[in-house]
Design goal:
Layout: E1 9-12, E2 21-28, E3 33-36, E4 41-46, E5 55-60, E6 63-64, E7 68-70, E8 82-85, E9 91-94, E10 101-102
Antiparallel strand pairs: 1-2, 1-7, 2-3, 3-6, 4-5, 8-9, 9-10
Length: 103
């Protein structure tokens, strides 16, 4: 289980976008990578299709999950969450800074 999920706000720890914050769009658990909105743009040469004209397009590339840190929605600080089990057996993430449950 990864500490980061879709729609989480994360802080970039290393690379050309170090220090920026963004929202996770997609996660690839088998590759340990994630795509973050408006972070790590790369240029791709696209062939024209019936819907799109093609050309050089910019899009987000995947980042390693080890280079991301979860930002707590309540205290707005980057923290490594701890995992705890509720009474019904469900695992939840808890912020180490404020102790609040991260949904």
């Amino acid at each position: 289980m990864f500490p980061i999920k879709k729609k989480d706000k994360v802080l970039i720890l290393s690379g050309k976008d170090k220090g920026k914050k963004g929202e996770v769009l997609d996660i690839f658990p088998d590759k340990s990578k994630a795509i973050v909105s408006k972070i790590n743009f790369v240029k791709r040469h696209m062939k024209p299709t019936q819907k799109d004209g093609g050309g050089i397009k910019e899009k987000e590339a995947a980042l390693s999950i080890s280079n991301l840190m979860l930002v707590c929605p309540k205290c707005e600080r980057a923290a490594r969450p701890k995992f705890d089990k509720l009474s019904d057996g469900k695992k939840v993430r808890i912020c180490r800074g404020c102790g609040e449950m991260i949904v």
